[in-house]
Design brief:
Blueprint: E1 3-8, H1 10-14, H2 18-28, E2 31-38, H3 42-48, H4 58-65, E3 70-76, H5 80-88, H6 101-105, E4 114-116, H7 120-130, H8 143-146
Antiparallel strand pairs: 1-3, 1-4, 2-3
The chain binds guanosine-5'-triphosphate (GTP) and magnesium ion (MG).
């Protein structure tokens, strides 16, 4: 089944939003396949956001991501990449709908609490980068109560 990479950024960890964010993905019905708390270095953050290296905010973005521990996760489920991005909300919290994570918990684009892969292909790449050791292989006994 489809998987996505979700990261709670340093501001989300510092602000005590880890449980709230995990709860939203869990309650939706998605399955947690990988989870760890870690602090990444500059080279790793630059690799994760390599596609944005030409942007004027790139250096600030890298500084932000390495400023403290993050929670890296792999979530699995039908359409989890697209639906995960909907749960997260628009990049700029000024435009994120209430009810989304960024809409409910963030104000500035440079402190938007959470990352989610933007496509199935980038999810595969990001899962490989963040979880080179692989992820857990289990299936929830709730599956028949979530999927028809
Ligand atoms: P991620 O899930 O973090 O990848 O966000 P996104 O896919 O919604 O947006 P994008 O990949 O375009 O940008 C990555 C991150 O860079 C955003 O989440 C913001 O934290 C930051 N960012 C994007 N645009 C801006 C900007 O115009 N100014 C600043 N300061 N940060 C930005
Ligand atoms: Mg992105």
């Amino acid at each position: 089944m489809e998987q996505t990479f979700i990261m709670i950024k340093p501001d989300g960890v510092q602000r005590g939003l880890v449980g709230e964010i995990i709860g939203r993905f869990e309650k939706k019905g998605f399955a947690l396949k990988g989870l760890k708390l870690l602090t990444v270095d500059q080279a790793f953050a630059e690799k994760h956001y390599a596609d944005l290296s030409a942007k004027p905010f790139f250096n600030g973005l890298v500084e932000y991501i390495i400023s403290g521990p993050v929670v890296a996760m792999v979530w699995e489920g039908k359409n989890v990449v697209t639906t995960g991005r909907k749960i997260i909300g628009a990049t700029n919290p000024a435009e994120s709908a209430p009810g989304t994570i960024r809409g409910d918990f963030a104000i500035d684009i440079g402190r938007n609490v959470i990352h989610g892969s933007d496509a199935v292909e980038s999810a595969k790449k990001e899962i490989g980068l963040w979880f080179p050791e692989g992820v857990a292989n289990w299936s929830s006994s709730l599956h028949p109560w979530i999927y028809e």
